[in-house]
Amino acid sequence: xxxxxxxxxxxxxxxxxxxxxxxxxxxxxxxxxxxxxxxxxxxxxxxxxxxxxxxxxxxxxxxxxxxxxxxxxxxxxxxxxxxxxxxxxxxxxxxxxxxxxxxxxxxxxxxxxxxxxxxxxxxxxxxxxxxxxxxxxxxxxxxxxxxxxxxxxxxxxx
Amino acid sequence: xxxxxxxxxxxxxxxxxxxxxxxxxxxxxxxxxxxxxxxxxxxxxxxxxxxxxxxxxxxxxxxxxxxxxxxxxxxxxxxxxxxxxxxxxxxxxxxxxxxxxxxxxxxxxxxxxxxxxxxxxxxxxxxxxxxxxxxxxxxxxxxxxxxxxxxxxxxxxxxxxxxxxxxxxxxxxxxxxxxxxxxxxxxxxxxxxxxxxxxxxxxxxxxxxxxxxxxxxxxxxxxxxxxxxxxxxxxxxxxxxxxxxxxxxxxxxxxxxxxxxxxxxxxxxxxxxxxxxxxxxxxxxxxxxxxxxxxxxxxxxxxxxxxxxxxxxxxxxxxxxxxxxxxxxxxxxxxxxxxxxxxxxxxxxxxxxxxxxxxxxxxxxxxxxxxxxxxxxxxxxxxxxxxxxxxx
Lengths: 158, 392
Known about the structure:
A: alpha/beta, Beta Polymerase, domain 2, 22% helix, B: mainly alpha, three-stranded antiparallel sheet
């Protein structure tokens, strides 16, 4: 596990960078290799990040790459916690439900709150809000004065 | 059965059903009495906590954490305060850390007692509910003495705790604990030797450990499946490494194991509190840095400098350095984490809460199918979901 950085550098070269702050290791992958990198982190026997702690996103409306998608991973084998991050130009990213089943709900929540579409997700629909909710509330450009219509419970049924 | 074609029927369990412990709605697809598919629908208690926290300053944001897991608000405060302190790079005085541990463990016991009573009520036991709530009320009295409130305490401060323990409190807490194990034993006797309880919990709702890991399940459900993962041991915070305690684990991950783990955890919490009270160090309970902590009231009236600090902190909040942190603590339901992104102002840029029940509840979709309808009630209860935390 000590040679985590070397393993990743060797495998992904320029497309990976590291940041260490307050004792937390952050690994930033470029968007195009993100899924492969996560699969590698999960399956490589010298890394073996088998536990997805959390999955979320951050919105930076003023930057060129507007969304950061953040994964917190933990390896039971090596007792190591890392943060994996990637910046997205468009709100589209491949779902990681095929790597960790538990990603299903947090991905739905991220879709619900940020409007990030996870393709290959088995059941991508809103989880906390109702289908006709206007906009995506955790985006920074969501107007807090938006008039929110009451959910129509007869529609919610299906 | 093979010769008849049977249709599955849909049954809505909840959102207003006492056995779902909150506004949880489960759409069960039933073949006779057998569950073939379970759809879990949440969001009935969504309040937008994460968005609200982006729009208030760091000190004000804490009161919103109280309303997440409303059975153990102190543990929510704990996780939030730990994340904020990590962002600032400060460590509270040792006495404050110990007081935090004592209060947190009392909250854990209180939360588990509510679960114990209501879970057993679901299984048809009436008496343990009364016993458990009686004990819980005593704990809430103890917490009220220290924090001023039974629930929604918000007693922790950035850099310490709000006040020192009142006179003689340690003794009253120890007296309670002395009594508590005996009272817990009464409940244990009532259930462990009861054949109906064993039949309804053993080998019901099995969650294999591999599936639990893959689904991100933490806390008692994961430990019930046999993996001793506890943040207090794995990433010790707030001097948890000073105390001796065991991590109870189950064997196969059925309802019985999850029950057993929670009951044993209460005993371990008791052990931790006893050690913490015995070794409680002397000293301050709040840092003396007036850029972070509001100065004491007497000084505010006398000194101009303290007055300015007070005004700055109360009106504007604290300026935080840029950066990101993830910090978690062992909540009553599992790993409760906070991921905070700061952009260098007095308000958080983004707060992400990792609610343990959210991930634990996901496992129900996999555990429920193949069980009988009446077992569903036992299984839901054994996961101890709190909807305030799931929906936030």
